[in-house]
Write a structure and sequence with these properties.
The complex is a heterodimer of chains A (59) and B (425). Chain A has 59 residues and is mostly helical. Chain A is 80% helix and 0% strand. In chain A, helix 1 runs antiparallel to helix 2. Chain A is elongated. Chain B is mostly helical and 425 residues long. Chain B has one domain: Ammonium transporter fold. The N and C termini of chain B lie far apart (76 Å). The relative contact order of chain B is 0.15. The chains are: A mainly alpha (59), B mainly alpha (425).
């Protein structure tokens, strides 16, 4: 789950950076950046859910 | 991004005086980290901090600075849709060819900054992070993660170029290192905590967290006071060297730094007083530092009133974030480093976007880069390190304490009850 979260974080960043290169107009660019942030938020949630599983030796 | 000031002019002399004060931040952090840990790991925490600062300084000078470089120096660039993206500097290794003047001063400032970033994960990994592993992890931070992001922001990299390439305000702004130092350190701390897991006994089988209070709150509060002058110097020196702020702006930077910390501390005191009936000293100290972290982003660009607002929100965020991470997300961070440095730092960076017109998108791209590239990168590096060199101490280390296990002696030997003093003669 943590790996999936990390991949989503990375994918969100790629979307954000792609928006800068692909769109000159502010409207679509901002929308694309927002979508990238949404993907990152999902990644962060997944990563934290994966991190919340306690390793056996810590209990 | 502007070149460094010329040697021996007023900005240069002011920067030299300011850089000399920055080690107070390191000293304050070391005290805070040690006070927030347990008695049986106090000497380990102190030595770990010294070792981390030393390793960070050496690795940064041997390898890291060549990736970071200086603004306008040689770099690897990529042309995307007609715009040049500066990704990585290519200065000589081992500081070869370093000319006298402002650049060595900037390197010295970076040495302190990377040492500061290296102390942040130590706080989160207290009581269970092996000394040797923390040194190796610090080497990864100082040699790769930190210089990479620092180049993008302070070395004329693609984040600094967002303004000239895409018309996003003045490019990503981080005059005092809220992102470059604090968030990078905070995200490294998060990676380390995810990899080494919580302290034994912190969470019960049903996931309920046990309170493990710090052993010396006087260290924590004195450390919080000690970081203030160093932080003012850090913010001012970074603003002069990396954001071309004139020395005349130093008083405003100092005032904003102080006000942000004060507001954050008051917010933390009030919140803990309202929620727990009494103010919590360690959370209040963390709130204070959270305000300082947020001030690093905004101190050069906002009015004192705005700095107070930024500090208030930072104090609120730190207080609730510590609880959220510990109780809901099972992130065992004894020093609250992730909340103080990552959360407050990200808030400060976004606040620049809210308060400086036309700057929001550039700041959002910078924060997205921290979360989307720096966090996975630092997690991957530390995960690989953990595969070849386990970072968490063994069962004995946690039972005996890191002092006895790794150093062979405790920090407070007079606490040991000697049999001969108590046996009837």
């Amino acid at each position: 789950m943590k790996l999936a979260g990390m991949l989503l974080l990375l994918a969100g960043w790629v979307i954000v950076v792609s928006a800068l290169a692909l769109f000159a107009r502010p409207g679509p660019r901002d929308l694309f950046v927002l979508a990238g942030l949404g993907v990152q938020l999902l990644g962060l949630i997944l990563a934290f859910r994966g991190g919340a599983r306690l390793p056996r030796e810590a209990k | 991004m502007t070149p460094y000031p010329a040697a021996y002019d007023l900005p240069m002399l002011a920067s030299m005086a300011l850089v000399a004060i920055i080690p107070l931040v390191l000293a304050g952090f070391v005290l805070m980290n040690t006070g927030l840990g347990r008695t049986r790991s106090a000497a380990h925490s102190m030595l770990g901090s010294l070792a981390a600062i030393a390793v960070a300084a050496l690795v940064f000078c041997v390898v890291g600075f060549s990736w970071e470089g200086v603004a306008g120096g040689p770099a690897h660039t990529l042309t995307i849709a007609g715009s040049h993206w500066d990704w990585l500097a290519r200065a000589p290794f081992c500081l070869l060819g370093l000319s006298p003047g402002a650049t060595p001063l900037a390197v010295l400032l970076q040495v302190f900054a990377v040492g500061l970033a290296a102390l942040i994960p130590l706080s989160a990994g207290a009581d269970r992070w092996r000394l040797s592993a923390s040194c190796l992890s610090t080497a990864l931070l100082a040699g790769w993660t930190y210089p990479l992001f620092a180049h993008w922001v302070w070395g004329g990299g693609w984040l600094a170029q967002l303004g000239s390439n895409y018309g996003l305000g003045r490019g990503f702004l981080d005059a005092g290192g809220a992102g470059t130092i604090q968030v990078v350190g905070g995200l490294t701390a998060l990676s380390v905590v995810w990899i080494i897991g919580p302290r034994r006994g912190k969470y019960a089988q049903d996931g309920i967290a046990a309170a493990i209070p710090g052993h010396n709150i006087v260290y924590v509060l004195f450390g919080a006071l000690l970081v203030l002058p160093g932080w003012i110097a850090l913010n001012a020196a970074c603003a002069i060297l990396f954001a071309a702020a004139p020395p005349a702006q130093i008083p405003l930077i100092a005032l904003n730094t102080m006000l942000s910390a004060a507001a954050a501390c008051v917010a933390a005191v009030l919140i803990t007083r309202l929620r727990f009936a009494k103010p919590d000293a360690s959370l209040s100290a963390n709130g204070w530092v959270g305000g300082l972290v947020a001030s690093s982003a905004v101190c050069t660009f906002v009015s004192p009133l705005m700095a107070i607002g930024v500090g208030l929100i930072a104090g609120v965020l730190v207080t609730f974030s510590v609880e959220l991470l510990e109780l809901r997300l099972a992130v065992d961070d004894p020093g609250g480093a992730i909340s103080v440095h990552a959360v407050a730092g990200i808030w400060g960076l976004l606040a620049v976007g809210f308060f400086v017109p036309g700057q929001l998108l550039a700041q959002v791209v910078g924060v997205a880069t921290l979360l989307g590239l720096v966090l996975p990168l630092t997690y991957a590096l530390n995960w690989m390190l953990d595969r070849v060199f386990p970072q968490r101490t063994g069962l004995d280390g946690e039972r005996l304490g890191m002092d006895l296990h790794e150093l062979g002696a405790g920090a407070y030997p007079e606490f040991v009850i000697h049999n001969e003093e108590f046996v009837e003669r």
